[in-house]
Design goal:
Radius of gyration: 18 Å
Distance between the termini: 47 Å
CATH superfamily of the largest domain: Transferase(Phosphotransferase) domain 1
Number of domains: 2
Protein name: Serine/threonine-protein kinase StkP
Helix content: 25-40%
InterPro entries: Kinase-like_dom_sf, Prot_kinase_dom, Protein_kinase_ATP_BS, Ser/Thr_kinase_AS
Domain Protein kinase: 12-250
CATH class of the largest domain: Mainly Alpha
Structural class: alpha+beta
GO molecular function, one term: kinase activity
Shape: globular
CATH architecture of the largest domain: Orthogonal Bundle
CATH topology of the largest domain: Transferase(Phosphotransferase), domain 1
Keywords: ATP-binding, Kinase, Nucleotide-binding, Transferase
Order of helices and strands: EEEEHEEEHHHEEEEHHHH
Largest sheet: 6 strands, antiparallel
Amino acid sequence: MPWAGQVVGEGVRLVRPLGRGSHSVVYFAVGPGGQACAVKIFDAHFAAHAVREYGNGSLLDHPRLVRVLSPVRVSDQPGLIVTLARGTVLFDRYAHRPALTHDRQAFLLTLAHLLDALGYLHARGLVHRDVKPENILVEPDGSATLVDFDLSGPTREAFATPTRMGTAAFQSPEAARGETLGPESDLYSVGVLLGWGLHGALSGPDVPPPPLPDPLDALLVALTEPDRTQRLGSAVKARELLLELAGLPY
């Protein structure tokens, strides 16, 4: 259903769709004072996701995380007014692959910003649970914003039955098994993205090795260790190691 032109909440006007995910569509919008924002409109049967995202996201305030401002109704569907994250999704931003060969400094900044965001999130007892390219918006210089908290929740949150969280290609082994998740599970997903930056393709038996050995290979191993108890579990430490191996200042 097209919503362009509709006014919701306290005078927020929907302008045009920006993109669609599995649970929602996001519209570019303009507030009553002319400020740009976005409105995330959920399919009606995903109302619980809207409630979860508002409950988690409204408590967060970090420059590398989208801010969840207020709930709204759009026609008969639940929605959220959020800050506008600039840029394009990660895979579109890095069209020349491998990213760490063709656009190294920008991709390193993207990973550093992503780890900044996760470090803040984890310090507040939350895990994102769906770190993937579509949820990372990247600007031309590599600056990044992590979005979408509708799958996020408390560290080690337990459900009545085993529940698989996230997107298959970026899931940690424990997420694929439906186990409770912690910071190390988000960091596994970062490791998959790092591997993509090194290889130009997602990991798998048919993916060729990088053109040359890279100092970041050690971080890739630490982040994608299958045994969660042996995996690097601190986003702050992962960021420090990223910059150290890349020869960049903290």
